[in-house]
Each structure stands twice: as structure tokens, then as C-alpha cells.
Design a protein that fits this description.
Layout (H helix, E strand, L loop, with lengths): L1 H22 L1 E7 L5 H11 L2 H4 L3 E5 L6 H13 L4 E5 L6 H10 L4 E4 L10 E4 L2 H16 L3 E7 L5 H15 L4 E8 L4 H14 L6 E4 L2 H13 L8 E3 L5 H8 L6 E2 L2 H16 L10 H4 L12 E3 L3 E2 L5 H6 L3
Parallel strand pairs: 1-2, 1-3, 3-4, 4-5, 5-11, 6-7, 6-8, 8-9
Antiparallel strand pairs: 10-12
Helix pairs in contact: 2-11, 4-5, 6-7, 8-9
Protein name: Sugar ABC transporter substrate-binding protein
InterPro entries: Peripla_BP_I, SBP_2_dom
Keywords: Signal
């Protein structure tokens, strides 16, 4: 009898444990790639979300490796393994639609974050308006040049929403300065190394003619600075701008080498995760991240909004030290 009671107790414990395991929410995050610091900050912020740290959410962060086909395969995996929700930062605005379709067909909500996808099936989106940042960064370069001279543009991966929208913003600012000539405009795929190589070539092709560099992200702006330094030219004689507010860019802003605009990776990531949990639990959830209190102009609104817009923050001499202090 005693053995029977022990066996029953063990079975009950196993069933209880299994029930708890089944209650855990399984969420996948599918960023376009994890090579650069910005998306590393984004992914780390996901892991630091209160619901993940408490064990309420089982989070898997995939590496899209800057390849739309890789991301589609990752979606197939998440659909097969019956994830409760997916957070998506696509490499390609159009190719990403097929991945969203596959999840929607399986009844899995997809929350966009950071980069956009051309799909009406996206459940919700948390990101920043890249057209605004593209205008802001180009304007800082053009203002420094007094709307005169020659510039080069380093673009992100062609076909990604950030590249498309930031270029639109770049062109809007350039239209206000008709005397400024764009000598070169080419993608460096968000890569510091690719940007350095391009800038080295451009400095050779246009000796003493380039006055400004519009880098659609900080990595590329920093690559341009490295090329300028390697050529023995004073980088401070150029007007150089980037976007994202990564750590090296913050240091470069402090040194007076460039300007940058902070894109809040933490807010985009944790906001998207709150929404993913909300939709996975059919609305039975209150947000746990503190980002909603930080950005009062982006209210939670009971998780009902289709788009949540995280504002941009220009990096300045007044806030750069505070921003650097947040980096470990």
C-alpha cells in the first residue's frame, strides 16, 4: 500500500510538472542577423525581459544571417514546433511576406520589430520611422556643410525597409540643398568592413572632393571614418552621420568625429515581446517591460494598436555620457 501511495504521488508530481511546462509560452524571435552590435543589443534586451527572466516565456532567438531564405526556413521550424508567437525583423521587405503567411496559416501571431514587411497579416509592429531618421541624419551633414559641397551615401541592404525609408529621408533633405552633389551612392549592407572598402575606393576616385558622408547606420559611418584615418586625412574635416547609437558611435560622437541618432533597440525588442505575449495569451496579459512608462507618447493602449512608434533620440554632448553608461 505504501509503495502504491508513493507511485501515485510521483505520478501526480509528474503530471503537475507537465502541466506547468505546457503553460510556458514559447516565443521565437527572428532578427535578420546578429553580426552587428545593434541587433545584439536588441536580442539581449529580449533575454532581459521580465517574462523571460521569470521563466514565464521560453524565448528562442534565431540568427537570420542576412538571408531571406534562412529566415523562411526558421519560420518553418517555428510553425512545425508550434510556437505560440513570433517576433520578426525581416531582411527583405517583400520576401518576408511569405514567412508571415506561413505563420498566419498556422494561426501563429507575428509581431514585427525594427524592420518592416509588406504584409497585411502582421499582427502588430513596434519600431521607429526610418524616413524621419534618414532626413535627420542627412540634415546634420548638410547643415554642417552649409548646403554646399559633395557627399557620398552608404546604404543598407537593398530591399530592406530601413534602407528604403532612410534613403527616402536622405533624398528629402538633399532636395532642400540643390547645390550639394552626391558623388557616390552604394550599399555597404550595414557592414563596417564593406563601408571602409567603399570609402577607400571613393577617396581614391574623388581626391579632396568628398565633404560629407551619409551613413544609413553607425557601422557604415564608422567604416568610412576608419578609411579616412587610414588615408591620413583629418576625419573632423568631414561631416559624417550615422544612425543607431551603437557604442563605438557614441564614443565617436563624444570625440567630435560624427553625429548619430539613437534607435532604441531595447524598446523595440521588449515592446514587441510584450505584444507577442499579449497575443499568445489572447489578450489576457498586462505589459511587464518598463519601456511603456519611458515613452509616454507611445501608450500601450491595451495592446490594440497595429503600430507602435518608438521615437528617435539625437545623440548630443549633453546625453552621450549617460548613453555610454548604459552599455556594459
Amino acid at each position: 500500500m505504501r509503495k502504491l501511495m508513493i507511485a501515485l504521488a510521483s505520478a501526480t508530481a509528474l503530471l503537475a510538472s507537465s502541466a506547468v511546462a505546457q503553460e510556458k509560452i514559447k516565443i521565437g524571435a527572428a532578427p535578420y542577423g546578429l553580426n552587428a552590435e545593434f541587433m545584439q543589443i536588441w536580442a539581449a534586451a529580449m533575454q532581459e525581459h521580465p517574462a523571460v527572466k521569470s521563466g514565464e516565456v521560453e524565448l528562442t532567438v534565431f540568427d537570420g544571417r542576412y538571408d531571406a531564405l534562412v529566415q523562411q526556413d526558421q519560420f518553418k521550424t517555428m510553425v512545425t514546433q508550434k510556437y505560440n508567437a513570433i517576433i520578426f525583423a525581416p531582411i527583405d521587405v517583400d520576401a518576408g511576406a511569405a514567412a508571415v503567411q506561413s505563420a498566419a496559416d498556422a494561426g501563429i501571431p507575428v509581431i514585427g520589430s525594427n524592420t518592416r514587411v509588406n504584409s497585411d497579416l502582421l499582427t502588430s509592429y513596434v519600431g521607429s520611422d526610418d524616413t524621419i531618421s534618414g532626413y535627420m541624419e542627412a540634415k546634420t551633414v548638410l547643415d554642417k556643410l552649409g548646403c554646399k559641397g559633395n557627399v557620398v551615401i552608404l546604404e543598407g541592404p537593398v530591399g530592406q525597409s530601413a534602407q528604403i525609408s532612410r534613403l527616402e529621408g536622405n533624398k528629402k533633405a538633399l532636395a532642400e540643398c540643390p547645390d550639394v552633389k552626391v558623388l557616390e551612392d552604394q550599399t555597404a549592407n550595414w557592414s563596417r568592413a564593406e563601408a571602409q572598402t567603399l570609402m577607400e575606393n571613393w577617396l581614391t576616385a574623388h581626391p579632396k572632393q568628398i565633404n560629407g558622408v551619409i551613413g544609413q547606420n553607425d557601422e557604415m559611418a564608422l567604416g568610412a571614418i576608419e578609411a579616412i584615418k587610414a588615408a591620413g586625412i583629418d576625419e573632423k574635416s568631414f561631416a559624417i552621420a550615422g544612425i543607431d547609437g551603437i557604442t563605438d558611435a557614441l564614443r565617436a560622437v563624444k570625440a567630435g568625429e560624427m553625429t548619430s541618432i539613437l534607435q532604441d533597440a531595447r524598446a523595440q525588442a521588449q515592446g514587441a515581446l510584450d505584444l507577442a505575449i499579449f497575443h499568445a495569451k489572447k489578450g489576457n496579459y498586462k505589459p511587464q517591460s518598463d519601456i511603456w512608462a519611458t515613452y509616454k507618447d507611445m501608450p500601450w493602449n491595451d495592446g490594440k494598436d497595429k503600430n507602435y512608434n518608438v521615437p528617435w533620440t539625437p545623440v548630443t554632448a549633453d546625453n552621450v555620457d549617460k548613453l555610454l553608461a548604459t552599455r556594459k
